[in-house]
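Schema walk-through. Below, the input block comes first and the output block second. Nothing else is stored per chain. Lengths vary across the set, and this one has 199 residues.
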Amino acid sequence: MLMLRYRDPETYGHSMRVAALSRKLVKRAKLSPEQQECAWLAGMLHDIGKIAVPEKILFKPSPLDESEWRVMRTHAEKGAKLVSFFPFLRTVAEAVASHHEFFDGKGYPRGLSGLNIPIAARIVAVADAYDAMVLPRLYSSPLTRADAMGELLRCAGTQFDPLVVEWLVQCVSAAKKDEKERNSAGKSALDRDGAAKPA
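--- output ---
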């Protein structure tokens, strides 16, 4: 990860956010501690293969052409090979390899579908897409949280596992509720502290 942080700080930051969101999703789903750890590590390492992508493609400030996309798409398998050097991360490597598989079988690199895609990869796919949509990219403007959620819901059952999308909906709703309660509590405290004191 230090190599990725040095070479591409933006992807490093994205990976940290995807890892954190992936962990929230597996907790929401009440999966086992082992599955939580796998999803978190897979989120952190899902783009590690981009260190092997040429800089002229990785940092291109405009959309990639088809030949460039073919190179970019190799990052999933290259990342899995890097991770698989550590035998205890074999399950994580499988998730890294599979995080661009589509639920309907039209993803890459192997055309896996449905429950044949590791659960950690299905979770990372949703977290990855959500983070990519709500933050600015080199050649695209960010979507609002609501628009990003709409896009995920639209693609549930084709690109994404519908159940994982539902977990994200629940996480985002819970976060908005918590934020609203914090803001309300803060406002109440200000009202109390800022009230005129009797002379």
